[in-house]
Q: What sequence folds into this?
């Protein structure tokens, strides 16, 4: 057994935390020395104080944003995977629909969100639709690529054994596509959060069902800059947590066989 | 770790010492030729009969069509002219009891996400065989290639030679009568290759397999084969045929014998001649 500070896991957790602490300290000390007023740029201690003080309302906002994000993410995964399967089944479908998938991807969500918010009465739903549109494309393109990336030797073996289309899909195409799919998940989870926040900014909904973006807007209006930073911090932490969850999921699924997740054996 | 199933007892009936020329041949190639879409003549009309239980090796310079011939026999491609018979029937009957065919590729072509046992079970799953029936067959095939202790491993945990053994187990699991192998050990080091050759000779003997084997190695060809077909290129054709007169199954003793060396020397001379003829264009 190696000492704790030499172990891989300890280093991977401790090193980023140490960097964070140093950054916060430089930030805190620098602002204190320069005597910058809190409404211009808050110190970390101001932000944490605000986080504690506004805890309940910020947490409620976080839950709203998280719900939109997760709904959009699930919708993007389901839709994106289905579309990818359609693309792989028929070249004609792919050729005729792929340009529109690209169109969806390149249209800025800020530009299209007002339209969707007007068209869809339910605010939650309209936000989810906007975020789904942002998160969809990586799933489509990655899963399609994965389903197409079949080992030619194995494909030959399946053909020689007269494997049915269904068996080829389940036994060959889907397992082979998993590494690509999980790559898509990592990108898409972050995009779902960004989509949700951007759509909230555009929608600017007040009242009970308002998310973190509204908290930021509201804090801006009232010049409560520490609260703005606190909301921003929560958004960032949510994004990191989502990413970490996707990394863990892909490790769980691929650790046995795929090079991206297997560790070299000494 | 213990083997799942004890090593299956071998058939007790007396075995013949030579291929059964009296029984119907496993494969007959009847004036089959192959002209590719670009007009290149891959194979001139070829006549060849592979006896039941025979170990036949195809050898020759590159471009001589040995792989093309093997693909014709596997029905992976169709002849441009002429025809082939499998056990005196056409290919639609291949796959029935006693008429099974298996192919081992140059690469192991295993599913990296599946354990050894799942890789070996794959052909039985294609045939929709229930798990209860398939599992003993899978364990037996894995035991026969000597990998019982590794049945729960993933391909990436195995060496190149072991992966090839899994590939052979996957071919054996369907109880084939005809085994087609396209340079299966070409990428392995000589020591591993010799070991696999030893085991292959035993396996094909125990299972009474008819085997058609493509190789570039003179030593491998002489060691394994009851008959060697030397091919030449431009167009691909049979140059000469050599019968290796030594009882099967063979062991290291044969490799060390002066007879083995003499066969290798002769085969080497023939290959040099075949190469010369290939360069000159030969044939038509």
A:
């Amino acid at each position: 057994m190696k000492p704790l500070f030499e172990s891989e896991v300890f280093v991977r957790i401790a090193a980023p935390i140490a960097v964070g602490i140093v950054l916060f300290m430089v930030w805190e000390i620098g602002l204190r020395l320069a005597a910058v007023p809190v409404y211009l740029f808050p110190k970390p201690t101001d932000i944490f104080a605000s986080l504690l003080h506004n805890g309940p309302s910020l947490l409620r906002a976080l839950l709203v944003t998280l719900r939109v994000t997760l709904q959009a993410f699930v919708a993007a995964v389901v839709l994106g995977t289905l579309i990818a399967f359609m693309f792989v089944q028929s070249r004609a479908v792919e050729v005729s629909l792929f340009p529109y998938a690209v169109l969806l991807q390149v249209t800025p969500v800020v530009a299209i969100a007002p339209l969707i918010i007007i068209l869809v009465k339910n605010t939650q739903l309209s936000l989810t639709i906007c975020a789904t549109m942002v998160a969809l494309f990586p799933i489509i393109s990655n899963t399609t690529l994965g389903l197409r990336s079949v080992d030619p030797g194995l494909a030959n073996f399946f053909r020689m054994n007269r494997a049915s289309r269904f068996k080829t899909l389940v036994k060959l195409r889907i397992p082979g596509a998993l590494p690509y799919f999980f790559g898509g998940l990592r990108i898409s989870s972050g995009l779902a959060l960004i989509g949700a926040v951007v759509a909230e900014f555009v929608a600017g909904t007040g009242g009970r069902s308002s998310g973190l973006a509204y908290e930021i807007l509201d804090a801006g209006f009232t010049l409560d800059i520490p609260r703005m930073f606190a909301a921003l911090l929560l958004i960032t932490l949510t994004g990191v947590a989502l990413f970490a969850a996707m990394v863990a999921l892909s490790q769980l699924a691929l650790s046995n066989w795929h090079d991206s997740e297997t560790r070299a054996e000494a | 770790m213990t083997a799942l199933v004890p090593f299956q007892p071998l058939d007790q009936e007396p075995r013949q010492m030579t291929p059964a020329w009296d029984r119907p041949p496993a494969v007959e190639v009847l004036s089959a030729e192959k002209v590719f879409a670009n007009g290149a003549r891959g194979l001139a009309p070829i006549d060849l009969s592979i006896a039941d239980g025979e170990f036949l090796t195809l050898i020759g310079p590159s471009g001589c069509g040995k792989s093309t011939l093997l693909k014709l026999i596997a029905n992976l491609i169709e002849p441009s002219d002429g025809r082939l018979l499998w056990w005196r029937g056409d290919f639609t009957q291949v796959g029935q009891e006693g008429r099974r065919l298996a192919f081992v590729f140059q690469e192991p072509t295993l599913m990296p996400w599946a354990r050894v046992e799942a890789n070996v079970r794959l052909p039985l799953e294609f045939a929709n065989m229930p798990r209860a029936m398939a599992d003993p067959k899978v364990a037996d095939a894995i035991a026969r290639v000597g990998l019982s202790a590794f049945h729960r491993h993933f391909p990436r945990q195995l060496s190149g030679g072991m992966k090839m053994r899994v590939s052979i187990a996957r071919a054996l699991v369907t109880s084939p009568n005809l085994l087609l192998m396209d340079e299966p050990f070409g990428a392995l080091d000589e020591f591993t290759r010799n070991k696999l050759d030893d085991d292959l000779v035993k396996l094909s003997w125990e299972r009474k397999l008819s085997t058609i084997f493509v190789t570039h190695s003179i030593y491998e060809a002489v060691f394994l084969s009851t008959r060697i077909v030397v091919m030449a290129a431009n167009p691909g054709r049979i140059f000469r045929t050599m019968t290796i007169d030594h009882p099967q199954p063979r062991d290291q003793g044969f490799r060390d014998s002066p007879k083995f060396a003499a066969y290798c020397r002769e085969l080497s001379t023939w290959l040099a001649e075949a190469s010369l003829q290939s360069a000159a264009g030969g044939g038509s």
The interface with chain A takes residues 74, 76, 103, 105, 107, 109-114, 122-123, 125-126, 154-156 of chain B (CB under 8 Å).
